[in-house]
Specification:
There is one protein chain. By secondary structure, the chain is α/β, with parallel strands linked by helices. It contains 7 helices and 14 strands. It is 26% helix and 29% strand. The protein starts with a strand and ends with a helix.
Length: 211
Protein backbone atom coordinates (compact mmCIF):
# COMPACT_ATOMS: atom_id res chain seq x y z
CA UNK A 1 0.00 0.00 0.00
CA UNK A 2 1.29 3.43 -0.95
CA UNK A 3 1.93 5.95 1.82
CA UNK A 4 1.93 9.63 0.90
CA UNK A 5 3.90 12.24 2.85
CA UNK A 6 3.84 15.89 1.88
CA UNK A 7 6.10 18.83 2.68
CA UNK A 8 5.40 22.50 1.99
CA UNK A 9 8.54 24.28 0.85
CA UNK A 10 9.99 27.55 -0.50
CA UNK A 11 8.47 31.05 -0.78
CA UNK A 12 5.80 29.74 -3.18
CA UNK A 13 4.49 27.27 -0.56
CA UNK A 14 4.90 24.36 -2.97
CA UNK A 15 3.93 20.82 -2.01
CA UNK A 16 6.63 18.18 -2.35
CA UNK A 17 5.51 14.56 -2.12
CA UNK A 18 7.29 11.39 -1.03
CA UNK A 19 5.47 8.18 -1.95
CA UNK A 20 6.59 4.82 -0.57
CA UNK A 21 5.29 1.35 0.19
CA UNK A 22 6.11 -1.66 2.37
CA UNK A 23 9.35 -2.29 0.46
CA UNK A 24 10.63 1.12 1.63
CA UNK A 25 11.41 2.15 -1.94
CA UNK A 26 10.20 5.69 -2.50
CA UNK A 27 9.79 8.27 -5.21
CA UNK A 28 10.20 12.01 -4.69
CA UNK A 29 7.81 14.19 -6.67
CA UNK A 30 8.53 17.90 -7.28
CA UNK A 31 11.27 18.60 -4.72
CA UNK A 32 10.83 22.26 -3.85
CA UNK A 33 13.18 22.31 -0.84
CA UNK A 34 15.01 25.63 -1.13
CA UNK A 35 16.86 26.34 2.12
CA UNK A 36 19.29 24.08 3.98
CA UNK A 37 16.62 23.65 6.67
CA UNK A 38 14.06 22.51 4.10
CA UNK A 39 16.58 20.15 2.56
CA UNK A 40 17.29 18.71 5.99
CA UNK A 41 13.57 18.27 6.69
CA UNK A 42 13.17 16.17 3.57
CA UNK A 43 16.28 14.05 4.09
CA UNK A 44 15.63 13.55 7.80
CA UNK A 45 12.20 12.15 7.02
CA UNK A 46 13.56 9.85 4.31
CA UNK A 47 16.38 8.55 6.44
CA UNK A 48 14.45 8.26 9.72
CA UNK A 49 11.73 6.32 7.91
CA UNK A 50 14.34 4.03 6.36
CA UNK A 51 13.37 4.85 2.80
CA UNK A 52 15.36 4.23 -0.36
CA UNK A 53 14.73 6.92 -3.01
CA UNK A 54 14.64 5.29 -6.44
CA UNK A 55 13.10 7.95 -8.71
CA UNK A 56 12.86 11.73 -8.92
CA UNK A 57 9.70 12.71 -10.80
CA UNK A 58 8.53 16.16 -11.91
CA UNK A 59 4.93 17.04 -12.73
CA UNK A 60 6.36 20.08 -14.54
CA UNK A 61 9.42 22.32 -14.42
CA UNK A 62 8.33 25.68 -13.03
CA UNK A 63 10.92 26.94 -10.57
CA UNK A 64 8.94 26.30 -7.39
CA UNK A 65 8.79 22.60 -8.27
CA UNK A 66 12.49 22.16 -9.11
CA UNK A 67 14.27 24.27 -6.48
CA UNK A 68 15.37 21.10 -4.67
CA UNK A 69 16.28 19.03 -7.71
CA UNK A 70 19.99 19.71 -7.51
CA UNK A 71 20.08 18.74 -3.84
CA UNK A 72 17.99 15.58 -4.26
CA UNK A 73 19.84 14.52 -7.41
CA UNK A 74 23.19 14.86 -5.67
CA UNK A 75 22.25 13.32 -2.34
CA UNK A 76 20.46 10.28 -3.73
CA UNK A 77 22.18 9.88 -7.10
CA UNK A 78 18.95 10.27 -9.07
CA UNK A 79 18.17 11.78 -12.46
CA UNK A 80 14.99 13.79 -12.82
CA UNK A 81 12.17 12.57 -15.05
CA UNK A 82 9.52 14.71 -16.73
CA UNK A 83 7.68 15.15 -20.00
CA UNK A 84 9.87 16.20 -22.91
CA UNK A 85 7.71 19.25 -23.58
CA UNK A 86 8.80 20.65 -20.21
CA UNK A 87 12.35 21.25 -21.43
CA UNK A 88 11.43 24.71 -22.72
CA UNK A 89 10.25 25.56 -19.20
CA UNK A 90 13.34 24.02 -17.59
CA UNK A 91 15.67 25.94 -19.91
CA UNK A 92 14.01 29.20 -18.81
CA UNK A 93 14.21 28.40 -15.10
CA UNK A 94 17.11 30.67 -14.16
CA UNK A 95 15.54 33.63 -15.93
CA UNK A 96 12.19 32.97 -14.29
CA UNK A 97 13.80 32.65 -10.88
CA UNK A 98 15.51 36.02 -11.28
CA UNK A 99 12.18 37.68 -12.04
CA UNK A 100 10.86 36.46 -8.68
CA UNK A 101 14.06 37.36 -6.85
CA UNK A 102 14.91 33.70 -6.29
CA UNK A 103 18.45 32.39 -6.52
CA UNK A 104 18.39 29.13 -8.44
CA UNK A 105 21.35 26.83 -8.73
CA UNK A 106 20.20 25.24 -11.95
CA UNK A 107 19.92 21.49 -11.43
CA UNK A 108 21.09 18.85 -13.88
CA UNK A 109 18.76 18.67 -16.85
CA UNK A 110 16.17 15.89 -16.86
CA UNK A 111 17.65 12.76 -18.39
CA UNK A 112 14.55 10.64 -18.73
CA UNK A 113 11.34 11.64 -20.47
CA UNK A 114 7.99 10.13 -19.57
CA UNK A 115 4.46 10.32 -20.97
CA UNK A 116 1.15 8.50 -20.91
CA UNK A 117 2.53 5.28 -22.36
CA UNK A 118 4.80 4.86 -19.33
CA UNK A 119 4.10 3.58 -15.81
CA UNK A 120 5.85 4.92 -12.71
CA UNK A 121 6.98 1.84 -10.77
CA UNK A 122 8.59 1.63 -7.33
CA UNK A 123 8.62 -1.22 -4.85
CA UNK A 124 5.38 -3.16 -5.28
CA UNK A 125 3.52 -0.08 -6.48
CA UNK A 126 2.77 1.78 -9.67
CA UNK A 127 1.24 5.03 -10.90
CA UNK A 128 -0.46 5.72 -14.20
CA UNK A 129 0.68 8.87 -16.02
CA UNK A 130 -1.88 11.39 -17.27
CA UNK A 131 -0.83 14.05 -19.79
CA UNK A 132 -2.53 17.24 -18.59
CA UNK A 133 -1.10 20.32 -20.34
CA UNK A 134 -2.41 23.85 -19.91
CA UNK A 135 -0.65 25.17 -16.84
CA UNK A 136 2.58 24.32 -18.63
CA UNK A 137 3.21 22.58 -21.96
CA UNK A 138 3.97 19.12 -20.60
CA UNK A 139 2.26 18.93 -17.22
CA UNK A 140 1.77 15.41 -15.90
CA UNK A 141 -0.43 13.93 -13.18
CA UNK A 142 0.18 10.58 -11.49
CA UNK A 143 -2.82 8.34 -10.71
CA UNK A 144 -3.31 5.23 -8.60
CA UNK A 145 -6.61 3.51 -9.35
CA UNK A 146 -6.58 1.08 -6.43
CA UNK A 147 -6.14 3.71 -3.75
CA UNK A 148 -8.08 6.37 -5.65
CA UNK A 149 -5.66 9.27 -5.60
CA UNK A 150 -3.86 11.48 -8.08
CA UNK A 151 -0.78 13.65 -7.61
CA UNK A 152 -1.95 16.63 -9.60
CA UNK A 153 0.85 19.19 -9.78
CA UNK A 154 -0.52 22.63 -10.60
CA UNK A 155 -3.43 21.45 -12.73
CA UNK A 156 -6.28 21.49 -10.20
CA UNK A 157 -6.45 23.04 -6.74
CA UNK A 158 -9.07 23.17 -4.04
CA UNK A 159 -11.43 25.80 -5.43
CA UNK A 160 -9.05 26.90 -8.17
CA UNK A 161 -6.91 25.85 -11.12
CA UNK A 162 -3.31 26.37 -12.21
CA UNK A 163 -2.43 29.78 -13.61
CA UNK A 164 -2.16 30.00 -17.37
CA UNK A 165 -0.49 33.38 -17.84
CA UNK A 166 3.06 32.00 -17.75
CA UNK A 167 4.91 31.06 -20.97
CA UNK A 168 3.46 27.88 -22.40
CA UNK A 169 0.20 28.16 -20.46
CA UNK A 170 -3.21 27.99 -22.12
CA UNK A 171 -6.52 28.35 -20.30
CA UNK A 172 -8.66 26.37 -22.73
CA UNK A 173 -6.13 23.55 -22.82
CA UNK A 174 -6.02 23.40 -19.03
CA UNK A 175 -9.81 23.24 -18.71
CA UNK A 176 -9.88 20.44 -21.28
CA UNK A 177 -7.18 18.55 -19.38
CA UNK A 178 -9.13 18.76 -16.14
CA UNK A 179 -12.46 17.75 -17.64
CA UNK A 180 -11.16 15.06 -20.00
CA UNK A 181 -8.56 13.50 -17.69
CA UNK A 182 -9.08 14.28 -13.99
CA UNK A 183 -12.88 14.48 -14.01
CA UNK A 184 -13.03 11.04 -15.59
CA UNK A 185 -11.29 9.38 -12.64
CA UNK A 186 -14.28 9.28 -10.30
CA UNK A 187 -15.76 11.64 -7.74
CA UNK A 188 -14.13 9.83 -4.81
CA UNK A 189 -10.57 10.26 -6.11
CA UNK A 190 -8.40 12.41 -3.85
CA UNK A 191 -6.34 15.11 -5.56
CA UNK A 192 -3.00 16.01 -3.99
CA UNK A 193 -2.13 19.38 -5.58
CA UNK A 194 1.09 21.29 -6.01
CA UNK A 195 -0.13 24.02 -3.65
CA UNK A 196 -2.70 24.09 -0.88
CA UNK A 197 -4.76 21.34 0.73
CA UNK A 198 -5.94 18.13 -0.85
CA UNK A 199 -9.38 17.92 -2.40
CA UNK A 200 -11.53 15.44 -4.32
CA UNK A 201 -12.66 15.26 -7.91
CA UNK A 202 -16.30 15.30 -6.84
CA UNK A 203 -15.88 18.39 -4.67
CA UNK A 204 -14.26 20.32 -7.51
CA UNK A 205 -16.97 19.28 -9.98
CA UNK A 206 -19.58 20.77 -7.68
CA UNK A 207 -17.76 23.75 -6.21
CA UNK A 208 -14.85 24.94 -8.34
CA UNK A 209 -15.84 28.35 -9.84
CA UNK A 210 -13.58 27.81 -12.86
CA UNK A 211 -15.27 24.53 -13.78
Amino acid sequence: MIQISSFTFNPFQENTYVLYDETKECIIIDPGCYTPLEQADLSTFIENTGLKPVRLILTHCHIDHILGCKYVSGRYNLVSETNKMEMQVFDNAERAAAIFGIRLEKPPAPEKFIDEKDIIKFGNSSLQILFTPGHSPGSLCFYNKEQKFVIGGDVLFQGSIGRTDLPGGNFDTLISSIKEKLFQLGDDVTVYPGHGPETTVGFEKENNPFL
